[in-house]
Amino acid sequence: MKIGILISGSGSNMIKLIESCQNDKNASINIVISNNPDAKGIDFAKSKNIKTKIINHKEFSQREDFDNQINNILIENKIDFLCNAGFMRIHGEKFVEKWFNKHLNIHPALLPSFKGLNTHERAIKSGVKFAGCTVHLVRSGVDEGPIIGQAVTSVDAHDDKDSLAEKVLKLEHKLYPKCLKLFTEKLVKVKNDKVIFSDKAIKILDDFKV
Ligand code: GAR
Asked: Is 165 helix (H, G, I), strand (E, B) or coil?
């Protein structure tokens, strides 16, 4: 399976996905695309000899043209599966359709709570005692789509948005590679937006049980 990764920033999740595929005979990371020319993650991908592309959204007046540009590059590079890893742009419906059930996102909250931006700040303000991250299939609603995996941490009395972000990011780094593996090894099926987990898939996600 040839995988493309979309990033916008530091790319720490991207690094974990790259590392997890390094010795994998079923999967390889073939391209990393960033909308942000200054994304730090691009340097890491280059250092691993992975093809990189900058598609700066600011150079497009229409979202659809930006989406099409990304899609064309994915097709040219024969990409089969797509992972958003801190990609901070919203995809248009047509793009979502093209990658339907072949496209994962990670969000730093326990969806369906705290969709969108400033998740940790909102979680702290709300007083929730548990937080975490979610890997889900991409649908056209922001941070919506069938959930593949979640990982949970406590929100402690001394936590602020930065300490919570740090705890959640550590969980993201463990969860995302495992969720991707479920697809590269064909351990899950999706029927009518319901995810069907094989026994092996359930075992892989057992680490995140609470
Ligand atoms: C991660 O926490 C990721 O979940 C979040 O951005 C951060 C990117 O970090 N993504 C979103 O908020 C998307 N809705 P990274 O670039 O170091 O992987």
From this structure: helix
What is the mean predicted confidence (pLDDT) over 68-82?
Answer: 98
In this structure, which residue's CA is closest to atom 17 in ligand 1?
12
80: domain range?
A: 1-99
pLDDT confidence band for 149 (50 / 70 / 90): very high
> Any idea what the CATH number is for the domain that residue 36 is in?
3.40.50.170
Q: Which atom of ligand 1 is nearest to the CA of 41?
A: 16
Where do the H-state alpha helices sit in the chain?
A: 12-21, 41-47, 63-76, 93-98, 119-126, 161-184, 199-204
Q: Are 115 and 93 contained in the same domain? A: no
Residues facing 191 on adjacent strands: 194
Q: Which two tokens stand for residue 51?
A: 């093809």
183 in the same domain as 149 = yes
Q: Please, what is the average pLDDT of the chain?
A: 98
Residue nearest to atom 1 of ligand 1 (CA): 86
Ligand 1 geometric centre to CA of 200 (Å) = 27
Same-domain check for residues 165 and 195: yes
Are 116 and 208 contained in the same domain?
yes
Looking at the fold, whether 72 and 139 belong to one and the same domain comes out as: no
Atom in ligand 1 nearest the alpha carbon of residue 14: 18
Residue whose CA is at the smallest distance from ligand 1 atom 8: 86
